[in-house]
Design a protein that fits this description.
five-stranded antiparallel sheet; 14 helices; Alpha-Beta Plaits; 33% helix; Alkaline Phosphatase, subunit A; 2 domains; 13 strands; single chain; alpha/beta
Length: 401
């Protein structure tokens, strides 16, 4: 019997509410051995209180030693095996901005970047150009034409955009053209099978035309493409867990992932304050709320230890507004670790805080990696977090006689 079949057979409905608060890239590392991580360095009195009343643990986003992207990291938190359900970043980004992917579409997430005179990348995010500038550049890219396919180029936010190719015989097994490094040129697109090789050829034509159109731009004179993907098929939260689920997310990619698993996108919040206001306004409409907080990840990728600490503290200050609504279960965690020391996602397990009346409390007194590693939840794969949340909410029945 498959794992999801077991869960579906055990689901029981009640009026208990679950909140999953995801601080993107929450896990970190100390700057030097023996020092504290970003989470441990932050002043988090509210999360520390919940840690004393609840229970802690460490989640493994995919498998030990595997560094996850944001897509697999969130899929695990949502209870889907990220090795079985593979969703490319392009499909997430496109769905997140409301673009309807059709059966013959292949989508990719694009980054404007800065290239030097030799064509090497000097800034992978083009200085995080403002969104209006991104919109202007996208208008340029919309003039590109390719044979036998329809092109869609859509602005997302700051330096990010979406490229969708629509046509018959396209494949999505295409490598990222972002080398994830500076001082080197963007990679050439290559496909691993005939349909994907056709996609790669078209992508390289698109990039060549784009380079000419962007050549005179001061910052965004190049681009890279990531996460080539077709439209995925996933069982929904309602089907799996019997939950009316809501997503409160700012960034399109996470809105897209939530939509693909059947969550309803509530409003179009731009700040944490707006997310919390929407939470209050919609509290009676849903059983489950996914709240996404991006800035612990972006500060980690920038290598800014102090800024990540500050963003964690800002999130902690918002926790009482969630608690006062009376959730039966509140889970606070991250989709992966983004240590500022590494300036990137990493393979390190992620601290988890689970707070509910039914918790078996442990000896942990604060929320941080060193405490969580000895917490009562132990170390587990992220895909088992949802069953734990459902069980603590009284939404899973007994298995077997």
């Amino acid at each position: 019997m498959k794992w999801h079949d077991v869960l579906q057979s055990l689901v029981e409905k009640n009026d208990h509410k679950i909140v999953l608060l995801v601080a993107d890239g929450l896990g970190g590392l100390p700057r030097s051995p023996g020092e504290k991580t970003e989470l441990e360095s932050a002043q988090t009195p509210h999360m520390d209180r919940l840690a004393r009343e609840g229970t802690l643990g460490m989640s493994i986003p995919v498998k030990p030693g595997i560094t996850p992207g944001s897509g697999p990291g969130h899929l695990g938190l949502f209870g889907y095996d990220p090795l079985e359900f593979v969703i490319g970043r392009g499909a997430l980004e496109a769905t997140g901005i409301g673009f309807h992917l059709e059966e013959n579409d292949v989508a990719a997430r694009g980054n404007f970047c800065t290239l030097d005179a030799q064509g090497n990348i000097t800034d992978r995010r083009a200085g995080r150009i403002p969104t209006p500038e991104c919109q202007r550049l996208v208008e340029k890219l919309r003039t590109i034409r390719l044979p036998e396919v329809e092109l869609f180029v859509e602005p997302v936010r700051e330096h990010r955009f979406v490229l969708v190719l629509r046509g018959s015989g396209l494949g999505d097994a295409v490598n990222d053209t972002d080398p994830q490094a500076t001082g080197v040129p963007p990679l050439e697109a290559q496909g691993t099978d005939p349909p994907s090789r056709r996609t790669a050829e078209l992508v390289n034509q698109f990039v060549a035309q784009a380079r000419r159109l962007l050549a005179e731009e001061p910052r965004a004179n190049g681009l890279t493409l990531r996460g080539f993907s077709a439209r995925p098929q996933l069982p929904s939260y309602e089907e799996l867990y019997g939950l009316r689920a809501a997503a409160l997310a700012v960034y399109p990619m996470y809105r897209g992932l939530a939509r693909l698993v059947g969550m309803e996108l509530v409003g179009q919040p731009q700040t944490l304050e707006e997310q919390l206001e929407l939470l209050r306004e919609n509290w009676d409409r849903f059983d489950f709320f996914f709240i996404h907080y991006k800035y612990t990840d972006s500060t980690g990728e920038d290598g800014n230890f102090e800024a990540k600490v500050q963003k964690i503290q800002e999130l902690d200050a918002a926790v009482p507004q969630i608690v006062e609504l009376g959730p039966s279960v509140l889970v606070i965690t991250g989709d992966h670790s983004t240590p500022s020391k590494l300036r990137s996602h990493s393979w390190h397990p992620v601290p988890v805080l689970l707070w509910a009346d039914s918790c078996r409390t442990d000896a942990c007194t604060s929320f941080g990696e060193s405490e969580a590693v000895r917490g009562g939840l132990g170390q587990f794969e992220a895909q088992y977090l949802m069953p734990l949340a459902l069980a603590h909410a009284g939404r899973l029945g007994k298995y077997g006689a």
